[in-house]
Amino acid sequence: MADIHKFIKDQLSVWPLAAANFRSLKNAEYRFMDVGGLKVTLQMNPCRIISSTAEVDDESIAARPCFLCPANRPKEQFHVKYEGKKHRSYNVQVNPYPIFRNHLVVVRDQHLPQTIWHHFPDMLLFTKMHQGFTVFYNGPSSGASAPDHLHFQACPRGILPLELAADAALDTATAELERVQDATLYKFNGFTRGVYILKASTQKSMAKLFYRLLECSPRREGEGEPRFNLYSWYKNGEFRTAVVLRSNLRSHHYFAEGAEHLTMSPGAADMAGYFVVPCGEDFRKITQEQLRQMVEDGIAILKVGPALTFSLREGLFALSMMEKQLVPEEKQAHFIEVLEETMVQNPSNWQKHYHGTEEELRIKRAFSFSDRCRYYFARPEITGAIDKLFCNLREVKTPLSMLRQYMPQQYLKVRDGVLRMDPKDLAEDCVVHLAEDYNYATKLNYLVGDVFYR
Predict the structure, then answer these.
(1) Cα–chain center distance at 254
(2) pLDDT of 296-312, one tens digit each?
(3) Which of 170, 130, 174, 172 lies closest to 153, judged by CA?
(4) What global pTM score does this model have?
(5) Rounded CA gap, 74 and 185, in Å?
(6) 3-state DSSP assignment of residue 153
């Protein structure tokens, strides 16, 4: 590909509209706030009103020509080519309504719908070829103003607050959630919930782990992929990625009237802590609390099935470990061993999801963040082992100090008298504790009933 910086300079020299909008960035107003421990940037940018107010429903999209197709572009606009994986070809273009200096759009040269499936490796390759850029992606329902034409965007490295914070976290991260070969997944703590960070030394492993994360993410009926924003960059021989899971494109502020109204539609830049405010009145009046609410309104978390059963599995494993200390071996339920044997004998629900050596497969069946145990909990051999585990623990006295060792959250509730020292109650509380996150994320107020299928 031709030198990107020369391309940008040549393009701006012949396109007055884009040149004027790029010059205006030099005089843009900025504010800075703290949201969830992340120092975020607010940029006053009137030219972005087109994107903030864009109608992206199917009828509106069908009624307008695609502005990313060459036939419909301004006569001044041109591009350079980028060749992705497996002969997928892209047009690299200057964004005429920039948020950043050197703001690029990487557009598939065919008119294909916005989707990350099969195209994430092309993002990664671009970051390696152009290591001074971070590439980001708006899902079709998560900020893309052209959901009918596949495209990524790129900006200079080190501008997005979330990228900088994720970089620092990945430099020292140890508490991994999942691993696929050389790729590792972590939960990012800060800014908001629903943020995950990944690193890998190869594109293939990064793509595998990323797609596995999407499999655990909520997807709405009729939509081709979960709602999310995606960021990738290349640092010191390593691919790095941040994922923000989304629920709604626009927060309640967009639809409110009066002082509460804000003409903002958070896309990838905003959800990385770089908020674009097209209206001067909004820029001056917006508060830190409104910004926090805007982020939270748009956040999703991992879908309920894997996450709840993941927590249930943790609770049952903890109870099983206490049983091993308190009950003679010949009387034990051996829940962990029964679950492993059942999964090995009936591999159809995990075979396509776990890969590695026999030892690695054993660890993944028992401890993977991408939980597959849930497909076995209703089998008679598993329900029998759970019943026996509960009965055994009811017949012995579990020291509070042991409960604190294996189930610290439940220990606090038992100590304070709000939870019974009953094994079934303890296991259920592991799920209730996780459900509190769902209450927070979905703004619902519900209680988890009997999760033990009866």
Answers:
(1) 23
(2) 877 765 555 556 677 88
(3) 130
(4) 0.70
(5) 42
(6) strand
